[in-house]
Amino acid sequence: MSNPIKKTNAARLLDQAHIHYDLIPYEVHPDDLGAAKVASSLGENVKQVFKTIVLEGDKIKYFVCVVPGDKEINLKAAAKVSGNKKCETLPLKQLLPLTGYIRGGCSPIGMKKNFPTYIDNSANEFDSIFVSAGQRGLQLKINPQDLREVTQATFADLV
Q1: Which residue from 69, 74, 85, 109 has the fewest beta carbons nearer than 10 Å?
Q2: Which parts of the chain register pLDDT below 50?
Q3: Residue-level pLDDT at 1
Q4: How many whole angstroms separate alpha carbon 114 and alpha carbon 109?
């Protein structure tokens, strides 16, 4: 008999908000934590598997962008939408202390603090998207509007 999936903090927050989601486990490949590998493990379209990127701006110190797995974030677009002149991705060593999450398991839901969050407009092309549930090997399948609601995010062109 397999072990039941343990709920993550992100899943508990969705439960508290009465938001529907599915927890989807997948096989972790420690040598490749990229979205394409996650999508392949899930058997899903990489355009529907979104990655969470934490950025540091020159005016708004920290903010979060959720972008499709087959694209790279456009830093100029991210800076503009967040009210910064420039921004860069957060150094990896700062990710866990700032968010409570590790690389490959960073969820846009349930970080240590609520940071301004932006979801790429392409999420609206789908009834549901996949984002990290807050640990490696576990994804949340969630409606993009519900994700926007729970993270108080703004949709924007980020790629």
Answers
A1: 85
A2: 1
A3: 43
A4: 9
Closest CA to 128 of 108, 142, 149, 118: 142
Is the pTM above the cut of 0.90?
A: yes
What are the b/e assignments for 81-100, b being 16+ CB within 10 Å? bbebeebeebeeeebeebbe
8 A C-beta contact, residue 103 and residue 92: yes
Q: List Cα–Cα distances, 125 to 44, 49, 74, in angstroms.
A: 15, 12, 19
Helix 144-151 to helix 9-16 angle (10° resolution) is 90
Domain presence at residue 1: no
Structural domain for 96, as ranges: 22-156
Domain CATH number, residue 118: 3.90.960.10
SS3 at position 124: helix
Tokens for 4, please give them: 């039941």
pLDDT at residue 5, rounded to an integer:
77
CB atoms within 10 A of CB 31: 6
Number of domains present in the structure of the chain:
1
| Beta-bridge partners for 110 | none
